[in-house]
Amino acid sequence: MDKGTSSKRSASRATTSSKSIVKKKLKALTEHAKNSRLGRELVAHVVFVIIFCVVTLVPSDDPNYEALSWSMQSVFLMEDHSQFNLNASFTGTKFVDISVVSDIWSWMKGPFMHAIYMQDWFRGDPWEVGDQNLVAGHNLIAGTVSMRQKRVQRATCTVPQQFLGAKEIVDCAADYSSKVEDKQGYGPFYTEPEWAKAYTFTSSWPSFSSGTKYYTSGGYAQEFPGANCSLANKTVPCITLAEAVLGDLESTGWIDYRTRVVLVEVFLYNPPLNRFVMVQAILELPSSGAVIPSYSVRTAKLIRYHSAQDFTILGLEVTLLLLIAMDALDKYLFFRNFDVNLRQSPWDIYDLFLYLLVFFIIVFRAVAAMKFEALNFDPSVRIYYNLADAVYWYDVAEGFLAVFAWFLWFRSFKFLNELSWARVILQTLLRAAGPLLGLCLSGFLLLLAFAHVGLLAFGTEIHDLRSFGVALASCFRFIFGGMKYDQFRTAGPLLGPIFYISFKVWMVLIMVRFFVAVLLDAYREVMQERKDRWRFSFPPAAALASDLVAWIRGQKVKTDVSVDADNKHHFHGLNDSALQDLAEHVEKKKREISEMDAREMYEELQGRIGKMQKHMDSKISNIEKMFVTTVAPLVETLDILVRQQTENAALEHVRKTME
User: Fold this and answer.
1) What is the pLDDT at residue 5?
2) H or E element: which one contains 276?
3) How far apart, in Å, do the first and last CA atoms of the chain sit?
4) Domain spans, the chain
5) What's the mean pLDDT when you consider all of the chain?
6) Which of 16-20's residues contact partners 24+ apart within 8 Å by CB, and which partners?
C-alpha cells in the first residue's frame, strides 16, 4: 500500500515536472513569436513614419505660410502707413497703440480702411483711393468686411449706498456676461439704409473669443463690401462709402459706455498658397475704462485637394490608413493565436490610443470640410461668410494631428526598449517614476501656493499675476526665467523681495535639484544592476532575420504552440498519453537511481553534469550558458546530500554490526 501510494506521488511529481518543462518551452516559443512580431512592427513603424513625414511636412514646410500671417498682421495691425500716404485722412493710430475710444475710430478710418482699399502695391507709388478687392496685391477679400459690438444692459451692477447721492453716477453697467447682455435696439433710430441696422441686434452673427473671455453669438454689426459699392443708387468708391458710414457711426455714438467689445473681422484668400486668412481685431472695453486691443490671425487650407501634389498627398494618406488597418489585423491575429490578454500588453493599448487620435483627426477634418461646403462660397457674391467655424475646426484637426505626431515619435521607445543600449534610459525613467510623481505633486502644490499669494499681494500691480490662472502659468514660467526682481520690489517694498527670494529658493534651488537628484539616483541603481549594459542585443531584429532566412529558404517556421476554440494550449508531440509515458519514464529512472548506492549515485550525477557541460560548450549560446551554469549550486547541494547519505549508511552499518 505504501509502495503504491509512493508510486502515485512520484508519478504525480514527474507529471508536474514534465509540465514545468513544457511551460518553459512555451515561454521560449512565445518570446520568439513576440520578438518576431516586434520586428514586423518595427519595419511597419519605420515605413509609417517616413510616409507620415512626407504627408505632413511637404504641405506645411513652407516659410511663406508664416510670412502670409506676418504680412497680414503688419498691414492691418502693426502699421499706420503714413510713409505711403499723400492723403492725410488715411493716417491714424496703429491698432496695437489703441488706448482710448477715439483711437478706435482713428484706426478704422485711417490705417485699416486704407489697407482694405489700397490702390497700388507693386510700383511703389503713393497709395490712392481705389477698389481692387485685393490686399497687399495677392489676397482676395472673401465676402465683406464686418464690424460688430457686444453690449450690456443698464443698471446691471450695484452701487454702494455711500455713492448713491453722487450725481455723476447716472448708471452702472457691469462687465460682459451672457446674463446681462443687451439685445434691444438703441441709438438715433434713423432709417438710413447704409448704417441703420448697426443699432439693431442681429442674432445670426457667430460667437467669438478674445484671449480672456468668450462672447456669445449675435451683436450690433455693420458690413463694408470689398468692391462694387453704391451710395444712394450710385456707384461710388468703397472708401467713400466706408468713410461716410464710419463718420456717421462715430457722431451718433455707436460706441458708448455700455459697449464691452468691438470686433473687426475680414477674411482673405491667397490663390498662390491656397490659404484662407482670418483676421480678427478685438477691442475690449471693460468697466475699468481702458481699451484692450488683441488680435487673431489664422491661416487655413480649407480647399485641401485641388492640385496634383494634393492628390498625391491624398494617396499617401490612404496608404497610412491601410498600414493602420494592417497593424490592427496583425494585433487581432496575434491575440487570437497566442491567447494573449490585452491588459498584459501596454504598448498595444498605446497603439489603440493612436487609432483613436487618427479617428478624431478624420472626424474634425470632415467637420471643417462640411462647414466650408455649407457656406456655398462664391467670391463674386458680396455677403458675409462665416469662415471662422471652418477655420476653428481646421485648427482643431491640425492640433490633434500635432498631438498624434508627438505620440507617434514616442512610440519609437517601444522598439528602443528592446535595444540593450537604450534600455537603460527607459528603465531609469520607470525606476524614478514613483519618486518623480511625488515630487511633481509637491511642486504643483507649491506652485498653487505661490500663485495664490502672488495674486493676493501683487495682482493689481504686476501684469503676469493679474488672475489666478495667469499667475499659475507665470509661476511655472518663472522657474525657467523671466522673473524680475525690480518689478516685485516696486510692487511691494517688503513682500516683493520676500516673495522673490522664497520662490527662487523653493522652486529653483530645492525642487529642480531634487528632480535631477532623483533621476541620477535611479540611473545609478540601474547601471549597477546591469553588468552587461554595453553588450549589443536587439532580439526583434534577430527574430525577424531568422524568420526571413527561413522564408527565403522555403522552410516552415517552427511554432510548436497552438490554441483551439476553447483557448486551451496544445503542444505538438506532447498529448496526454505522451505526458503519461514521460511520467512513467521519469519514475523508472528514479527507481534505478534508488537502487544505486551512494557512490554510484554520485558518479552517475557527475557523469550527467559532465555531458551537460560538454553539450553546453558546443551547442548553446553565451546567454543560455549563463542560465545553465546556475545549476552548479544545485550540484554542490546534491554532493553534500550524497556524502551525508553515505556517512549515515556507514553509521547504520556500524550500529548493526555492534548489535
Assistant:
1) 52
2) strand 275-284
3) 31
4) 90-300, 430-529, 564-658
5) 79
6) 17/586, 18/579, 18/582, 18/583, 18/586, 19/579
